[in-house]
Amino acid sequence: MENRSTGLMTLGQIGLGSIAGVILVSVGYLFTNNLFLQVIIGDRIHHGFWIGLFTLAAFLLTYGLGVVGVAYGVKWVAQQFGQDCNLRHVWQGAFLGPPTLAVLIMITKLDWQTLIESMSGVGSLQYQSKFGFHTLFHLLILVIRPIASLLSLPVHLLLKIGLPPELLYTVSAPVGGILGYRFDWHRADEKSTESELIS
């Protein structure tokens, strides 16, 4: 029964967190793009640096609103099941969820052989022979490739069965938030330290 309750809570957190995140991202995009960038700024600024700076600020605001929506959605569902979660760790996990997914998707599409061949011409021949650049790089690839393939395997399978990347990005934030507070090692260490001090 406990496993069933945990499963229902997790599904609820992913569902509500995704919906809340999408709603706030949509509101943030409408505000930053339609009102801020187009109406307020419009054609008033032509310098590339300032345009880039305001665009970055608009993106961060929109992304931040999405993270807030996801975090409070995850926390609210946890409270309905009688559990508490550290909101700061939910924020951290939700913030890192989409970038982590982007890296995993990139790994699934990475051509390792092309990478090895492209790195073969890096550096002078004297440098390569002196420091064993090729040998070191090939050893690194031999270690990194199976680990990267294993980590990206779930994403690869989900893309293989036809799930759109947009859907994966939508659920990656609440999944990151859930992992952020459930695998809260810092809080566990703090609790163990406090219990040791009390005892």
Question: Can you describe this structure?
Answer:
The structure is a single chain. The protein has 199 residues and is mostly helical. The chain has one domain. The protein has 9 helices and no strands. Helix 3 crosses helix 8. It starts with a helix and ends with a helix. The C terminus is likely disordered.
Q: TL;DR of this structure?
A:
The chain is mostly helical and 199 residues long.
Class from secondary-structure proportions: mainly alpha
- The helix tally amounts to 9
**How far is the first residue's CA from the last residue's CA?**
34 Å
Strand content: under 5%
Low-confidence runs of at least 5 consecutive residues? 123-127, 192-199
Report the helical percentage.
over 70%
Topology summary:
Blueprint: H1 2-41, H2 48-80, H3 87-108, H4 112-119, H5 125-131, H6 133-151, H7 153-160, H8 165-182, H9 185-198
Features:
mainly alpha; 9 helices; 85% helix; disordered C terminus
